[in-house]
Structure formats: C-alpha cells, structure tokens
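Thought: the user wants the 3D structure for the chain below. I'll pass the sequence to the structure tool as-is, report back what it returns, then summarize two notable features.
Action: structure_tool
Action Input:
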Amino acid sequence: TAFLLSDPLAKKYGAVVFIACMRFETAKRKLQYLSFNDYYHCAQAIMGSWTYCCTGPEYYDTEMDREFLLELRELRILLDKEKEHKHLCCMRLKPKLLEKSYQELELNFRLYTRALVGLACNLHRGRELRSLFIDLLERCVEPLRLGCWPKT
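Observation:
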C-alpha cells in the first residue's frame, strides 16, 4: 500500500519482480502460449516454498533457499526404489484419475518419474533453475500431453 497499489495488483507486481530478479527464461518461443496467470501461480508457489522464510539483512526476499535446492538431489533414491514409489503413487492417484489416465500413468510412470527427479536434482545449478519453465514444459507437460492427460 506504500505505492497505493491494491493487494492483488501488488502480488502480481511482486511475481513479475521475482521472475525478473531470478532471471527465469520466459521469452522462449515454446512458452508463448503461457498466460500471465500461469507464471503468476508458478511464481507464488516458488516464492512460498523455495525461498528463505527467514528475515534479516543476510536474507533477501528473492533469494532461493539453497539448502532446499541441494536437498532435492536426495530425490534420486526414488529412482532406486521405483517399484515402491510407483505402487504408492498409483495407489494414491487411482481414485482421482480417469481409468484411461491411470493406465497411461502406470505405463509411463518411469518416464515421468525420471523427468521430474532429473529436473529436481539439478535445480541447485543456476542455469537449470533459470530454465525451469522450459524444462518443465519439455520434460513434463509435453509428455503428459502426448499421453492425452486432461489439462486440469
């Protein structure tokens, strides 16, 4: 309110500033179809879960929680425990998915898991973090689209 912005507008402005400060790649041709709301929701989720929640002069609002990003590398164990991971995920998702989507998930679980875990394990590298949106699109969204998953 110091700049006389409404709360919703200030949150949107904050998301734009965050995306710009973190230097996320958003200008790639493949990302053209994404709306501002798509970026806004992603920025809100990242700011809420991946940045430092501490306050003080040594922490900046736009600084990523490096310890968290380094801990994501430990997700590699899911690749070693694929059978158990698949069983738990499928058991949890079966009641929420259409039968066709569930069968497709079972069939391509390894592909989806490797894509997500590979992406997460490398987010501690600046270049990988900056290309998060394009990597999510190429490694996760496009394969799910090819699998005829619903958009919601």
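Final Answer: Structure generated. The chain has eight helices and no strands. Helices lie at 7-21, 36-49, 66-71, 77-80, 82-93, 99-121, 126-130, 132-146.
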